[in-house]
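A quick aside before the break. I want you to see a complete sequence-to-structure record at least once, exactly as it would be stored in a machine-readable document. Don't worry about memorizing anything.
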Amino acid sequence: MKRICVFAGSNPGVNPAFAEMAERLGQELAARDLDLVYGGSNMGLMGRVANTVLTAGGKAIGVMPTGLFRGEIVHTGLTELHEVRTMHERKAKMGDLADGFIALPGGFGTFEEIFEVVSWGQIGIHSKPIGLLNVEGFYTPLMDMVNHAREAGFIPVTQGELILCESDPGVLLDQMRDYTPPAKVNKWSELDVK
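That is the input. The structure line, written in tokens, reads:
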């Protein structure tokens, strides 16, 4: 792994632990010589992780649609900034640049981004590791929902292993480094495959 894409809130959230963990993740990325790929903002948890990586001497690569430059306040001190036209292009570019994905706490955009890369992994578009940084249990309800969907027959049992979930950034990055994608299985229960 050379580059990790981090999805994160463009707000800091109300719990100071969220920003502290964004900074810990940034320090861990820089210490491991892993480049950060992210949405390019200077705001919220996105800005915290990028600023920490840069302060520690690491590389931060942003990808942002032109229309969000003002709202998300584009980071002007990045190692690289890729300007794209649409959100679809943003996510595709971040996916192309990254060797793995981590989600810090965030809202609808973060959820959408992480579930898109999980879906892509499930159908074989990529085999990159995907992790949730579970800050003070933030992602526990989401993992409960994934397990509920698996028990309800909507996610094949082994496909739940597509998502790594840890509360320590170093442990999560170690798991991502050692990740082996789950065996490909027939995802469609009504399709008779020999």
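Two observations worth writing down. The chain has a mean pLDDT of 92. The longest strand covers residues 60-65. We'll return to this after the break.
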